[in-house]
Predict the 3D structure of the following.
Amino acid sequence: MAQTVMMAFAAGSQWECLGKNIAQLELNLVFAELFRHFEFTLVDPANPWKSFNAGMFSQSNLNIAVTRRSAA
C-alpha cells in the first residue's frame, strides 16, 4: 500500500525523489495551517461519500463545508 500511495515520488532508494522529504514537510505544514484556521464539516453526514474500486480506488460526492474559525 505504501508504494502505491507514494508513486509520485517513485519507489526504492535508487530512484527516490530528492525533494520527497521537503515536499512532505511542506504538505504537513499546509494541512496544519488549514485545520488551524478553518473548520471542516460534512454537508450530509448520513451520506459522506461514494467509493468505487475497479483497479483504481475512486471517491466522489464528498461535500464539505469550510468555514473560517473565529480569532481566539
Notes: The chain has a mean pLDDT of 82.
